[in-house]
Amino acid sequence: GNSVTQMEGPVTLSEEAFLTINCTYTATGYPSLFWYVQYPGEGLQLLLKATKADDKGSNKGFEATYRKETTSFHLEKGSVQVSDSAVYFCALSDLGGTSYGKLTFGQGTILTVHP
Amino acid sequence: EAQVTQNPRYLITVTGKKLTVTCSQNMNHEYMSWYRQDPGLGLRQIYYSMNVEVTDKGDVPEGYKVSRKEKRNFPLILESPSPNQTSLYFCASSAQNSNQPQHFGDGTRLSIL
Question: Is A105–B42 a contact, with Cβ atoms under 8 angstroms apart?
Answer without folding.
Answer: yes
